Amino acid sequence: ETIEKLADCLETATLLEDRRAGVLSLKGLVRDWPEEVGNKSFPGLIKVLHTDYKDVDITKSLLETITILCTVQHQQDKDDKGFKFTDYFIEDSRNVTILLDILEEFDFYVRYNTIKLLSTLLANRSKRIQECILTNPMGISRLVDMLDDKRDIIRNEGLLLLIGLTRSNTEVQKIVTFQATFEKLLAVIEEQEGISGDIVVQDSLTLMHNLLRYNVSDQVYFRETSCIQQIPGLLGYVGDSDADHVPYSFEDWPPQKIANTVLVLQLIRILTEPDSSSTPINQKVMVQSGILLPIVQLGLCSNAPSIVRTEALYSIAYVV
Protein backbone atom coordinates (compact mmCIF):
# COMPACT_ATOMS: atom_id res chain seq x y z
CA GLU A 1 0.00 0.00 0.00
CA THR A 2 2.86 2.39 0.83
CA ILE A 3 4.51 1.67 -2.52
CA GLU A 4 1.21 2.27 -4.33
CA LYS A 5 0.80 5.66 -2.65
CA LEU A 6 4.37 6.65 -3.52
CA ALA A 7 3.92 5.50 -7.12
CA ASP A 8 0.72 7.54 -7.34
CA CYS A 9 2.61 10.55 -5.97
CA LEU A 10 5.10 10.35 -8.85
CA GLU A 11 2.26 10.38 -11.38
CA THR A 12 0.08 13.09 -9.84
CA ALA A 13 2.14 15.37 -7.56
CA THR A 14 2.35 18.92 -8.87
CA LEU A 15 5.12 20.09 -6.53
CA LEU A 16 8.75 19.15 -7.17
CA GLU A 17 9.29 18.70 -3.42
CA ASP A 18 6.56 16.06 -3.28
CA ARG A 19 7.97 14.16 -6.25
CA ARG A 20 11.46 14.34 -4.74
CA ALA A 21 10.17 12.94 -1.44
CA GLY A 22 8.39 10.15 -3.31
CA VAL A 23 11.52 9.17 -5.22
CA LEU A 24 13.65 9.20 -2.05
CA SER A 25 11.15 6.95 -0.28
CA LEU A 26 11.06 4.49 -3.19
CA LYS A 27 14.86 4.46 -3.29
CA GLY A 28 14.80 3.43 0.36
CA LEU A 29 12.43 0.55 -0.41
CA VAL A 30 13.80 -0.73 -3.71
CA ARG A 31 16.61 -2.92 -2.34
CA ASP A 32 14.23 -4.92 -0.16
CA TRP A 33 11.22 -4.93 -2.50
CA PRO A 34 12.56 -4.43 -6.04
CA GLU A 35 9.78 -6.36 -7.79
CA GLU A 36 7.01 -4.47 -5.99
CA VAL A 37 8.65 -1.06 -6.45
CA GLY A 38 9.30 -1.73 -10.14
CA ASN A 39 5.89 -3.14 -10.98
CA LYS A 40 4.02 -0.26 -9.37
CA SER A 41 6.27 2.76 -9.85
CA PHE A 42 8.46 2.24 -12.94
CA PRO A 43 6.27 4.33 -15.30
CA GLY A 44 6.22 7.11 -12.70
CA LEU A 45 9.99 6.97 -12.20
CA ILE A 46 10.53 7.35 -15.95
CA LYS A 47 8.02 10.20 -16.13
CA VAL A 48 9.80 12.11 -13.34
CA LEU A 49 13.17 11.43 -14.99
CA HIS A 50 11.97 13.31 -18.07
CA THR A 51 10.28 16.18 -16.25
CA ASP A 52 12.75 16.82 -13.42
CA TYR A 53 16.14 15.72 -14.76
CA LYS A 54 17.63 19.18 -14.24
CA ASP A 55 17.11 18.83 -10.48
CA VAL A 56 20.33 17.25 -9.18
CA ASP A 57 18.92 15.73 -5.99
CA ILE A 58 15.95 14.00 -7.55
CA THR A 59 18.01 12.82 -10.54
CA LYS A 60 20.68 11.18 -8.36
CA SER A 61 18.03 9.16 -6.53
CA LEU A 62 16.12 8.31 -9.71
CA LEU A 63 19.21 6.99 -11.48
CA GLU A 64 20.21 4.88 -8.50
CA THR A 65 16.70 3.43 -8.15
CA ILE A 66 16.35 2.58 -11.85
CA THR A 67 19.82 1.00 -11.87
CA ILE A 68 18.86 -1.30 -8.99
CA LEU A 69 15.67 -2.30 -10.81
CA CYS A 70 17.54 -3.05 -14.05
CA THR A 71 20.38 -4.99 -12.42
CA VAL A 72 20.23 -8.67 -13.36
CA GLN A 73 20.82 -11.10 -10.50
CA HIS A 74 20.80 -14.32 -12.52
CA GLN A 75 22.12 -14.00 -16.09
CA GLN A 76 20.85 -17.46 -17.05
CA ASP A 77 17.28 -16.62 -15.99
CA LYS A 78 15.50 -14.96 -18.92
CA ASP A 79 12.68 -13.96 -16.57
CA ASP A 80 15.00 -12.10 -14.17
CA LYS A 81 13.35 -8.82 -13.15
CA GLY A 82 16.47 -6.94 -14.33
CA PHE A 83 15.82 -7.99 -17.93
CA LYS A 84 12.13 -7.16 -17.59
CA PHE A 85 12.69 -3.62 -16.35
CA THR A 86 15.56 -3.07 -18.80
CA ASP A 87 13.27 -3.99 -21.70
CA TYR A 88 10.57 -1.66 -20.39
CA PHE A 89 13.04 1.21 -20.08
CA ILE A 90 14.71 0.86 -23.49
CA GLU A 91 11.52 0.21 -25.45
CA ASP A 92 11.31 3.98 -25.96
CA SER A 93 14.68 5.27 -27.21
CA ARG A 94 13.92 8.67 -25.66
CA ASN A 95 14.60 7.13 -22.25
CA VAL A 96 18.17 6.43 -23.35
CA THR A 97 18.47 9.85 -24.99
CA ILE A 98 17.53 11.59 -21.74
CA LEU A 99 20.39 9.77 -19.99
CA LEU A 100 22.82 11.16 -22.57
CA ASP A 101 21.38 14.65 -21.99
CA ILE A 102 21.83 14.23 -18.24
CA LEU A 103 25.58 13.73 -18.78
CA GLU A 104 25.83 17.49 -19.37
CA GLU A 105 25.38 17.89 -15.61
CA PHE A 106 28.79 18.15 -13.94
CA ASP A 107 27.71 16.88 -10.50
CA PHE A 108 29.84 13.83 -9.62
CA TYR A 109 27.02 11.55 -8.48
CA VAL A 110 24.74 12.43 -11.37
CA ARG A 111 27.45 11.61 -13.91
CA TYR A 112 28.58 8.50 -12.05
CA ASN A 113 25.04 7.12 -11.64
CA THR A 114 24.19 7.91 -15.28
CA ILE A 115 27.23 5.99 -16.53
CA LYS A 116 26.45 3.08 -14.20
CA LEU A 117 22.85 2.90 -15.45
CA LEU A 118 23.96 3.03 -19.10
CA SER A 119 26.52 0.31 -18.38
CA THR A 120 23.84 -1.85 -16.74
CA LEU A 121 21.48 -1.42 -19.71
CA LEU A 122 24.32 -2.14 -22.14
CA ALA A 123 25.28 -5.33 -20.31
CA ASN A 124 21.68 -6.54 -20.49
CA ARG A 125 20.70 -5.49 -24.02
CA SER A 126 23.80 -4.31 -25.89
CA LYS A 127 22.36 -4.28 -29.42
CA ARG A 128 19.30 -2.24 -28.47
CA ILE A 129 21.37 0.30 -26.51
CA GLN A 130 23.69 0.72 -29.49
CA GLU A 131 20.63 1.35 -31.70
CA CYS A 132 19.23 3.93 -29.27
CA ILE A 133 22.53 5.78 -28.98
CA LEU A 134 22.94 5.88 -32.76
CA THR A 135 19.72 7.92 -32.94
CA ASN A 136 21.53 10.64 -30.99
CA PRO A 137 25.12 11.10 -32.25
CA MET A 138 25.57 14.14 -29.97
CA GLY A 139 25.03 11.75 -27.10
CA ILE A 140 28.13 9.81 -28.15
CA SER A 141 30.06 13.07 -28.02
CA ARG A 142 28.99 13.50 -24.39
CA LEU A 143 30.12 9.96 -23.59
CA VAL A 144 33.53 10.60 -25.12
CA ASP A 145 33.77 13.84 -23.14
CA MET A 146 33.92 11.68 -20.00
CA LEU A 147 37.51 10.85 -21.01
CA ASP A 148 38.37 14.49 -20.29
CA ASP A 149 36.82 14.45 -16.82
CA LYS A 150 39.56 15.15 -14.27
CA ARG A 151 37.82 12.92 -11.72
CA ASP A 152 39.46 9.54 -12.25
CA ILE A 153 36.40 7.48 -11.33
CA ILE A 154 34.21 9.25 -13.90
CA ARG A 155 36.88 8.93 -16.59
CA ASN A 156 37.51 5.26 -15.84
CA GLU A 157 33.82 4.31 -15.74
CA GLY A 158 33.24 6.24 -18.97
CA LEU A 159 36.12 4.35 -20.55
CA LEU A 160 34.63 0.98 -19.59
CA LEU A 161 31.24 2.05 -20.98
CA LEU A 162 32.83 3.04 -24.31
CA ILE A 163 34.63 -0.32 -24.50
CA GLY A 164 31.30 -2.12 -24.21
CA LEU A 165 29.53 0.27 -26.56
CA THR A 166 32.08 -0.04 -29.40
CA ARG A 167 32.21 -3.82 -29.36
CA SER A 168 31.01 -5.25 -32.71
CA ASN A 169 29.31 -2.12 -34.05
CA THR A 170 31.13 -0.38 -36.90
CA GLU A 171 28.81 2.65 -36.98
CA VAL A 172 29.26 3.37 -33.29
CA GLN A 173 33.02 2.89 -33.71
CA LYS A 174 33.16 5.51 -36.48
CA ILE A 175 31.19 8.12 -34.53
CA VAL A 176 33.27 7.54 -31.39
CA THR A 177 36.51 7.84 -33.39
CA PHE A 178 35.54 11.18 -34.91
CA GLN A 179 35.18 12.75 -31.45
CA ALA A 180 39.02 12.95 -31.24
CA THR A 181 38.92 9.80 -29.12
CA PHE A 182 42.36 8.50 -30.14
CA GLU A 183 43.94 11.79 -29.14
CA LYS A 184 42.18 11.67 -25.77
CA LEU A 185 43.21 8.05 -25.17
CA LEU A 186 46.83 8.71 -26.06
CA ALA A 187 46.82 11.66 -23.65
CA VAL A 188 45.45 9.39 -20.89
CA ILE A 189 48.14 6.77 -21.61
CA GLU A 190 50.89 9.40 -21.57
CA GLU A 191 49.56 10.78 -18.28
CA GLN A 192 49.77 7.24 -16.86
CA GLU A 193 53.41 6.85 -18.03
CA GLY A 194 52.76 4.54 -20.97
CA ILE A 195 53.13 0.79 -20.60
CA SER A 196 54.31 1.29 -17.01
CA GLY A 197 50.86 2.64 -16.10
CA ASP A 198 47.95 0.96 -14.38
CA ILE A 199 44.74 -0.75 -15.53
CA VAL A 200 43.57 2.53 -17.14
CA VAL A 201 46.30 2.11 -19.78
CA GLN A 202 45.04 -1.42 -20.46
CA ASP A 203 41.46 -0.15 -20.81
CA SER A 204 42.55 2.72 -23.09
CA LEU A 205 44.41 0.30 -25.37
CA THR A 206 41.45 -2.09 -25.36
CA LEU A 207 39.17 0.71 -26.58
CA MET A 208 41.70 1.55 -29.30
CA HIS A 209 41.64 -2.10 -30.38
CA ASN A 210 37.83 -1.99 -30.61
CA LEU A 211 37.92 1.13 -32.77
CA LEU A 212 40.67 -0.04 -35.14
CA ARG A 213 40.13 -3.77 -35.63
CA TYR A 214 38.80 -4.42 -39.18
CA ASN A 215 37.71 -0.77 -39.43
CA VAL A 216 39.54 0.81 -42.37
CA SER A 217 38.03 4.29 -42.00
CA ASP A 218 39.08 4.46 -38.35
CA GLN A 219 42.57 3.30 -39.33
CA VAL A 220 42.75 6.11 -41.90
CA TYR A 221 41.77 8.61 -39.19
CA PHE A 222 44.36 7.11 -36.81
CA ARG A 223 47.07 7.43 -39.47
CA GLU A 224 46.13 10.90 -40.73
CA THR A 225 46.06 12.36 -37.22
CA SER A 226 49.67 11.18 -36.72
CA CYS A 227 48.73 8.65 -34.05
CA ILE A 228 50.89 5.90 -35.58
CA GLN A 229 53.95 8.06 -34.90
CA GLN A 230 53.10 7.95 -31.19
CA ILE A 231 53.26 4.15 -30.91
CA PRO A 232 57.06 4.01 -30.31
CA GLY A 233 56.51 6.42 -27.42
CA LEU A 234 53.92 4.06 -25.91
CA LEU A 235 56.65 1.44 -25.67
CA GLY A 236 58.92 3.85 -23.85
CA TYR A 237 61.18 4.61 -26.81
CA VAL A 238 61.11 8.18 -28.10
CA GLY A 239 63.49 7.89 -31.06
CA ASP A 240 66.27 9.90 -29.42
CA SER A 241 69.62 8.16 -28.93
CA ASP A 242 70.47 10.60 -26.12
CA ALA A 243 67.17 10.01 -24.31
CA ASP A 244 67.25 8.94 -20.70
CA HIS A 245 65.81 5.52 -21.44
CA VAL A 246 66.41 2.42 -19.36
CA PRO A 247 67.26 -0.50 -21.68
CA TYR A 248 64.51 -3.11 -21.72
CA SER A 249 66.94 -5.72 -20.38
CA PHE A 250 67.19 -3.81 -17.09
CA GLU A 251 63.50 -3.13 -16.65
CA ASP A 252 61.13 -4.75 -14.18
CA TRP A 253 58.15 -6.53 -15.68
CA PRO A 254 55.19 -6.50 -13.29
CA PRO A 255 51.99 -8.20 -14.60
CA GLN A 256 50.23 -4.95 -15.53
CA LYS A 257 53.20 -3.78 -17.59
CA ILE A 258 53.26 -7.12 -19.42
CA ALA A 259 49.54 -6.80 -20.23
CA ASN A 260 49.95 -3.20 -21.44
CA THR A 261 52.97 -4.05 -23.61
CA VAL A 262 51.22 -7.01 -25.23
CA LEU A 263 48.25 -4.77 -26.09
CA VAL A 264 50.53 -2.20 -27.77
CA LEU A 265 52.19 -4.96 -29.82
CA GLN A 266 48.78 -6.35 -30.77
CA LEU A 267 47.74 -2.83 -31.78
CA ILE A 268 50.63 -2.81 -34.26
CA ARG A 269 49.37 -6.07 -35.75
CA ILE A 270 45.78 -4.80 -35.97
CA LEU A 271 47.10 -1.96 -38.15
CA THR A 272 49.10 -4.34 -40.37
CA GLU A 273 46.68 -7.21 -40.92
CA PRO A 274 47.49 -9.16 -44.12
CA ASP A 275 45.07 -8.45 -47.00
CA SER A 276 43.83 -5.18 -45.46
CA SER A 277 43.79 -2.30 -47.95
CA SER A 278 45.30 0.07 -45.37
CA THR A 279 48.20 -2.21 -44.40
CA PRO A 280 50.86 -1.10 -46.97
CA ILE A 281 50.62 2.58 -46.07
CA ASN A 282 50.37 1.80 -42.34
CA GLN A 283 53.56 -0.27 -42.63
CA LYS A 284 55.33 2.55 -44.43
CA VAL A 285 54.35 5.12 -41.79
CA MET A 286 55.37 2.74 -39.00
CA VAL A 287 58.83 2.17 -40.44
CA GLN A 288 59.28 5.93 -40.94
CA SER A 289 58.24 6.54 -37.33
CA GLY A 290 61.04 4.28 -36.07
CA ILE A 291 58.81 1.59 -34.68
CA LEU A 292 61.14 -1.28 -35.58
CA LEU A 293 63.88 -0.41 -33.09
CA PRO A 294 61.78 -0.73 -29.90
CA ILE A 295 60.03 -3.91 -31.02
CA VAL A 296 63.33 -5.51 -32.13
CA GLN A 297 64.75 -4.57 -28.73
CA LEU A 298 61.76 -6.19 -27.04
CA GLY A 299 62.01 -9.29 -29.20
CA LEU A 300 65.67 -9.81 -28.36
CA CYS A 301 65.51 -8.66 -24.75
CA SER A 302 66.64 -11.51 -22.52
CA ASN A 303 64.92 -10.07 -19.45
CA ALA A 304 61.48 -9.59 -21.04
CA PRO A 305 58.85 -12.27 -20.35
CA SER A 306 58.50 -14.85 -23.11
CA ILE A 307 55.00 -13.64 -24.05
CA VAL A 308 56.37 -10.13 -24.67
CA ARG A 309 59.27 -11.42 -26.77
CA THR A 310 56.92 -13.66 -28.78
CA GLU A 311 54.43 -10.84 -29.43
CA ALA A 312 57.29 -8.53 -30.43
CA LEU A 313 58.67 -11.02 -32.96
CA TYR A 314 55.18 -11.47 -34.45
CA SER A 315 54.87 -7.68 -34.71
CA ILE A 316 58.19 -7.38 -36.55
CA ALA A 317 56.94 -9.88 -39.12
CA TYR A 318 53.72 -7.88 -39.60
CA VAL A 319 55.47 -4.52 -39.95
CA VAL A 320 57.98 -5.70 -42.56
TrEMBL record:
Entry GO terms, CC: endoplasmic reticulum; ER to Golgi transport vesicle membrane; Golgi stack
SUPFAM superfamilies associated with the record: ARM repeat (SSF48371)
Stored InterPro entries: ARM-like (IPR011989), ARM-type_fold (IPR016024), Vesicle_P115 (IPR024095)
Superkingdom assignment: Eukaryota
GO biological process: endoplasmic reticulum to Golgi vesicle-mediated transport; Golgi vesicle docking; intracellular protein transport; membrane fusion
Protein name: Vesicle tethering protein Uso1/P115-like head domain-containing protein
The species this protein was found in: Mucor lusitanicus CBS 277.49
